[in-house]
Amino acid sequence: MDHPARGDADAYRRYFAGMDASLDQKAAFLSAHLVTDPGARILDLGCGSGALSARMAALAPGARVVGIDIDAGTIAQAAALHDLPNLEFRVGDAAAAQEPADAVVSCSLLHHVYTYAPRPYDETAAEAALRAHLASLRPGGLLVLRDFCRDGAPGETCVLELPGEENAALLRDFAARARPLDPLGAGFPLEELGEAGDGWLRFRLHRHWAAEFLLRKDYREDWEAELREEYAFWPLRRFAEVVEGAGARVVRAAEVRNPWVVQNRFAGRARRWDERGRPLPWPATNMVLVAQKVPVGGAVRLQQRRFDPAPPTYLRQSAWSGPDGTFDLVQRPTGAVDFLPFSVTDGCLRVLARNGWPRPALVAIGTETGEAAELRSGHVVEMISLASDGEDLAADFQARAGFPIPSGTRPEALLSFLPSAGLVDEVVRAFAVPLPVLPPVQPASRPPGQTLDPGVLQSFDAAGLLRAAEVGMLPEARLELAVRVLLRRLDLPAGRWAGEELPSDLPVVVASNPETVFHPAGTPFTPAAGAAGYLRRARSVFVETLAGAGGPVRGAEQVLELAVPAHHGAWTVSVLPVARDAGGRVLVGLERRVLPAAQLGFGDAALPCVPAWRLGVPPDAPEPLREAAARAAGCAPGSLAPLGAAYHPSSGITPERVQPFVVPLDAMPSALREVLQPVPLRWLLDRAALLRDGHLLIAAFRLACALDDPA
What is the pLDDT of residues 486-520, one digit of tens each? Predict the structure, then answer.
């Protein structure tokens, strides 16, 4: 690939500064899957300033990180700025195949390859580079790709509104001169529709080009270079198709919306509508794809093939009558036991988890709606867990870990909680298992009756897993929660928060006596004669696609049962109200509910919890989940901040996903504030083992990490 010049040294400094501004987010995307074993080789292709290469070298001191870029001056500058013993920089063609590596990282490279190919704007050149990335991986190696993806369907148009003539003039110039390297001619059609009524100017154009304009309109100092590049050339699904066709598993591919860009460059500075006058979501500011190269015969993807009409035989359903009506619940024959083997070396916590464990709920029908387009293979990083009554922990551990608990070691109880109290009658008991040394990567044990590929057991940096959870790369909530509790118990730092910045201007209120929130409710629920009609159980056939020598081939299939709401979608939103008392302590507003799952699991129906609502169809809005949460909580959308990424609370039973938010307590309506009890956050964290609501546990520990001082 020829090297495209962006301009003078100042232009490059501005370009690299923009790239490095999202460094924490990029590093967080890597954390759950970064290969950190001693001797591992990691390539940063198109390394630019070298800042990300240096961050990876620091995260994986036992690995060898090599930054590769085609520009010799850039490589010289990177080598001068970043001097680490396990880091080197080389001049080379980042779009070509490299020496075999355990991980390949490619950030904002492919759209350059596409733009500046010998035949400009060439998709085949970008595909060849992506396949070269994958060819550079050893079996089991990981590709982390960050670039752009196309917005909207092919040919889809939209109406774009801009404030002021200066912005309109820039759009006209962009429409006339975009893609100047195209031998067939530059530009795209732009129809002027006049004023919107409030001084904003309206235009009709393809949705793709509206997104391209919004993503670059603020880079005016380097406008000529920005005109040449076309950021997005493929939709998200096409990236996944190429990766799977090359024998790799898409761990996650997702649109990403940088919150700073959304708030400072989109919101209030542009408006987009579809042709029916409905507001469109903001375009993704980038996409991220994590893929794992699997050996021939390894699982590439899970797919829901069909529904099975036979009645459910594994999951049970029951109905319970109580003070507030009838509740439906689903349950497995036993509870769930989670194990977290760990070791601490030089003050760093590492944990053993299952990597590549099949969770069909992640790909079940109805799970693709929501805030952002997302694709997953259906394989996750999660706890070593099993359905069990927990009466023989040693036998349970050996059955799933594949090796015994060392003599003289006893599992340490971490938590006992309800992961989804309104839907699932299941108590999860989590245990930490201290080990002197964590074992090397090894195949995970296959449970009796499971035909699907079980993946491997692998050790992970604990703080890195938390960063991954905060940005959506670790969807399994139980592993995140156990890691957070264990770090606090060991008095080890949880690390720097990678999610969106939270509100700092909090109201001052008087703290409630926590005992008033936690007083018992007794056992008011009795079996109901008929179901409430809220839940249904579904049997589905899930099929594996395997990596074959000549391309993907069909693998095993398995019938599994899931529980889904009968009249709602897969999304839940939780909203944690936050305040401070006069002494500066952080307070969180708790709701006290009375639920049958709490009565069945713990002998008392009272459940102090975070306010949460199950959604139907998210509303048409630029940020659908934020808008839905605001409507449910009765507050302004702008008062809410996402508390990290969405998570799956119980992926073995239900496709439910939860997006947590925080809100200043005084932004809530008075009617809701009156029933909330402000409780000190630190008081809750100190009693985590006694909290029963999984959503509250996740929200409280994430909030503590985000504030970095839960005083």
Answer: 999 999 999 889 888 898 899 999 999 888 888 89
Across 525-561, b (16+ Cβ under 10 Å) vs e yields: beebeebeebbbbbbbebbbbbbeeeebeebeebebb
pTM across the whole model: 0.89
- Three-state secondary structure along 414-430? EEEEECCCCCECCCEEE
Q: Phi then psi for 271, rounded to 5 degrees? A: -140, 140
Residues 6+ apart with CB under 8 A from 153: 207
Q: How far apart are CA 252 and CA 362, in angstroms?
A: 11
Q: Which two tokens stand for residue 510?
A: 């008087």
> 629 or 31, which is more confident?
629
User: How far is the C-alpha of 153 from the C-alpha of 207, rounded, in Å?
Assistant: 8
Q: How far apart are CA 564 and CA 660, in angstroms?
A: 20
Beta-carbon contacts of residue 152 (< 8 Å; ≥ 6 apart)? 158, 206, 207, 208, 211
DSSP string, 160-212: EEEESHHHHHHHHHHHHHSSTT-TT------EEEEE-SSSEEEEEEEHHHHHH
Q: pLDDT at position 260, please?
A: 84
The answer to whether the CB of 254 falls within 8 A of the CB of 241 is no
Strand partners, 301: 545
Residue spans of alpha helices (H) in 60-143: 72-81, 110-115, 123-135
Distance of CA 19 to the CA centre of its chain: 21
101-107 vs 526-527, strand pairing mode: unpaired
Write the DSSP assignment of 498-566 as a string of letters: -SPPPP----B-PPPPHHHHS-------EE-SS--S-EEEEEEEEEEEEEETTEEEEEEEEEEEEEEES
The type of residue at 49 is: S
CA atoms within 13 A on the CB side of 666: 10
Residue 258: count of CB within 10 angstroms of its CB:
18
101's CB contacts (< 8 A; 6+ apart) are: 41, 42, 43, 66, 136, 137, 138, 141
* Distances from the Cα of 605 to the Cα of 1, 228, 600, 602, angstroms: 65, 63, 8, 8
Scored b (16 or more CB within 10 A) or e, 300-321 reads bbbebeeeeeeebeebeebbbb
What is the 8-class DSSP label of residue 581? -
- DSSP line for 593-613: EE-HHHHHHHS--EEEE--EE
For tokens 């699982």, the residue is: 299
Q: Nearest to residue 103, comparing CAs of 45, 176, 178, 22?
A: 45
pLDDT of residue 370: 45
C-beta of residue 686 within 8 angstroms of C-beta of residue 658: no
Report CA-CA distances (Å) from 168 to 7, 272, 449: 26, 14, 62
Helix/strand/coil for 373: coil
Q: Are strands 299-308 and 535-548 parallel, antiparallel or unpaired?
A: antiparallel
